[in-house]
């Protein structure tokens, strides 16, 4: 358990979390550095200085690089001569070598590649501080540095030729066989972006503009948002601190291309001696080559759209234990003795050896389930057991939903919410509803006739009889009973709220950068968790309580425990804001959706990213796990809902129908129906069971990750339900499968 | 700062329509000007660089502020969002505080300067104000079952009478007075629909509408439309109250129709195309056979109230089709049908009155010597209608101006209307046809009808001549009616004999329906008057001979009616009417067991006191 110091985490410690073994180590550092909204010194040093250093220092760097190269090849005489001629001090090279070894001695040599080392190199070169002699091992690590530094110059070709290069490639790709064309067309967008950025970076503003004008129309429409950002960027000075740009520079755009297509491209570029493009492909693109048939256009389109291309295949290879945990064995009173049962609820010690059918079902161990104690979970309290009993009783009365049997929908309308409703949550038993508002308040309502009461003050508590049976009732202050309570504490809009499973706590996260834990017994704030220094977009309790996850503008998601004021894990890897976070039903995984248009699944135990799902064409705003834990549904601003198979790491289905951002998704309790709610004022019901049943994953698909989606949205759509000019913000299935929707009336 | 704000707005605006104009630009002149106002002298080059940088920064901020909007689950970008974006990028917010509502931009007189109006507020006045505005209502959650088992039940959730909130103080008081006066203490009676069981209440509402309409100090503006729609509701809808035959919803409908014409004459100019809308909806009701008879009655009465032009345009061409339906009802003597039949007679009477008025007015307009002279001798009104339309049916009281306005509506809006192809029918032809429907009773009313003493008798005299010519060769319909006889009747004949009717009912329809009528009688069927099924796919059967027992209804049962008929025995002999398909089935005037007084009463109510 590598507990990380929250708040101002310095880079080294963050690397220790090892969020991802390879390239994500790089992203990790950039995620912290990349608080680009504020011009912090670190951000300028890590990414900017390599390039922004101009004139003499640049020459010096080149010299250093050459020297290093010579020395590595044991050309000591040449080294001496060059050094003398350049007038460099003798220790210059040694110093550099020593500092380059620093990251490797930190144990993350694999995690730091090209750019970071390059920045270190340059920093050292400029400041030329004294250091210790370099270990020989460092030399091997320096290989990429050299290429980075040198390639930085080699790419500065004739700006006028960029257009020619690009259109030449375009002509070539358009002329190849159909089966290859779709695959090779993927190259266009990243190439376009990098060529444009190079032009801008090298101060060829007018050429850059012309280049953009000419070719931006060719790009896929789902890159429109990114292109808009790019088009506003025409000056080198502006490149510093631009988030989208940093994403492009620091992460490699991932393409999946079949071997044949790749060979074709490679041959063409070599024939044409088109080094410019080849260099970009080498440096900024990661081409994931697979053997077999090239993919079709629709296959590619289904998976592309994210900020940094598709996920690498090996990123989704890790085993995920998606099964559910074994339910604890709870003695359930007989159902036919309802009155008795209610009496027993007061004193659960009286046990009967009768098992409920639901309880016995989950007894057998699911082969896909994680070990029961993989993640330490809080022990069940008596009240939790009572709640479980209630749950089981309710679930026996559950309506079995399906294609023929659609749920009734109740709409909870927030009236007079002039201040702006931003988040809604229901308790699992649907007894409480809470709303987060843009005026920084959180309001809790009781949906049942039972009013909300506070616990008595300490002085009054001293007076009550602690031995009495109804002590829990006695501690409540009747005078405070009301239908709703307002919780004050945040200083910015509340973007996410979540009830704890035991209904004693409420979490809220806000633009002010904090997550707050509220007690629903005293209706006061218990803890303010500070760690995200930027707006926190979403938070959610674990289904077992105790843990919770939050994600925000700082591009990381954090795992917390309620009794720790610092996060237990930091999940870094997203290239843009983490917009929504959800716990897996077995509490062993966390899924995050981001504005980089990817979804990542994180292992709570190791902190690793175990799945990356690409395919959305807009920021993801909602996620939902199916009750059996096998599937995931995601909704984005593009109005589409995508279904994912977690075990295989594949997209299962694409549900088209909404015309605006999908803000709410929820599976029915038995997983038969998926409900989606959107800004377009509709709730739509989808036949999830059919979507999952139709799924036949053969080994080939599983191995290659090539999916064939048939467009069956209309078949799966079971109903569209209009609200009265009320955007649907939240959806919830009661334990008996009644669908509750919530939103604020927009006058 | 106004400059800054306007450029922000222009920027966000351009983000939407990026295709046309790429980005908003802050010109170097603006930058130089700003610098000057801050006391700094800038070089040309410097200003250009700065201007470009400012543009970029603005774009960047505009882009980053949209995420605050998205996460607040809004569609509208607010000033607050922008301020947040600025704050998070360590820039001092310059936009001040934002309001929820959009701030309208105003343009300056000179140049392309746009600014948000920033009124000066008198703080003293505000501080000493006695009418402190109430705080906005408390945020609350209301739940309703929107859909049951995934079906239906669409009720508005959270219906707030928002229209009320936008009223000014005086109007608000007025509103409160009115609502209190009408609704009493019951706050739930906000909609007409909720009181459709209570005739009292509806009557009161209608009176309220009347007083609203007649209030010369109230500018109704766009509310006319909603007033009209609620009045139309009273006219047309099968109110819950009409289930009980004892309720006199007929008078309500009459009154509402009156009111409708009243609104229309006085406020018709406020809403363009109102006339056509009303006509359209009336026509729709009339042509919908599923609607109950009381709705049809309402439609007829409404048309009548709108003037004889409306009757001529809508009711008259529609009559042949409608007649068959009405006939079916009137011919049904089963006990279960008694109530429906009574309603049918009501409709019959209404149509009769409307049609008579139409004929009279038409004759009047024809014969009016001074104002519009035309070749009356030909008997064709076609030309006359064309150029004398403005004042064709002006009720004496109504302002001629209003009439003009309406007539122009009529002309202007007629494009694309279903009765566009309607061609004016000559008066005699019209009379002929109407006579074929109504038989003697038409003529009776025509000659002795009340309210039209002034017109000389000439129209009917004038009328009769061409009629005689036209009908001279026909056999005596009276004999045909009085004796039960078997008439072999080629169904398509109406079309063949060159009848002026524009729209004869499809031939097969009639044969179908006569059989279904008997079927209906056998099974003793339902109250709903014209089940749709009867009209399904009538076309494909080949037109054929159908045997109709003509004059069957003249059996013993109808004895009671004869005196009624003979009392008003016609001076003009309707001798020359050829045996018509519909004429046979006519029940003459069927008001069995109903006092004559009531008839006249409702007859009067149909008359327009305009």
Automatic annotation (TrEMBL), chain A:
Pfam family, one: TFIID_NTD2
InterPro entries: LisH, TFIID_NTD2, TFIID_NTD2_sf, WD40/YVTN_repeat-like_dom_sf, WD40_PAC1, WD40_repeat_CS, WD40_repeat_dom_sf, WD40_rpt
Compartment annotation: Nucleus
Domain TFIID subunit TAF5 NTD2: 157-285
Ranges of compositional bias, category Acidic residues: 332-343
Region entry Disordered, spans: 1-57, 92-111, 332-378
Placement of WD repeats on the sequence: 414-455, 487-520, 529-560, 571-612, 613-654, 655-687
Record field: compositional bias (Basic and acidic residues): 355-366
CC terms in the record's Gene Ontology section: transcription factor TFIID complex
Biased composition (Polar residues): 22-37
Compositionally biased region (Low complexity): 38-57
Stored PROSITE patterns: LISH, WD_REPEATS_1, WD_REPEATS_2, WD_REPEATS_REGION
Keywords: Nucleus, Repeat, Transcription, Transcription regulation, WD repeat
Any single biological process term in GO: transcription initiation at RNA polymerase II promoter
Coiled coil: none
Domain of life according to the entry: Eukaryota
Family membership noted in the UniProt record: Belongs to the WD repeat TAF5 family.
Protein known as: Transcription initiation factor TFIID subunit 5
Gene name of this polypeptide: TAF5
Automatic annotation (TrEMBL), chain B:
Record field: compositional bias (Low complexity): 509-518
Annotated Pfam families: TAF, TAF6_C
Family matches, as InterPro entries: ARM-type_fold (IPR016024), Histone-fold (IPR009072), TAF6 (IPR037796), TAF6_C (IPR011442), TAF6_C_sf (IPR046344), TAF_TATA-bd_Histone-like_dom (IPR004823)
UniProt xrefs under CDD domains: HFD_TAF6L (cd22932), TAF6C (cd08050)
Residue numbers spanned by region Disordered: 489-524
Key words, A-Z: Nucleus, Transcription, Transcription regulation
Protein's GO biological process: transcription initiation at RNA polymerase II promoter
Gene3D superfamilies reported for this sequence: Histone, subunit A, TAF6, C-terminal HEAT repeat domain
Subcellular localization, as worded in the UniProt entry: Nucleus
A GO cellular component annotation in the UniProt record: SLIK (SAGA-like) complex
A single MF term (Gene Ontology): protein heterodimerization activity
Record domain TATA box binding protein associated factor (TAF) histone-like fold: where: 24-87
Family to which this protein belongs: Belongs to the TAF6 family.
Protein name: TAF6-like RNA polymerase II, p300/CBP-associated factor (PCAF)-associated factor
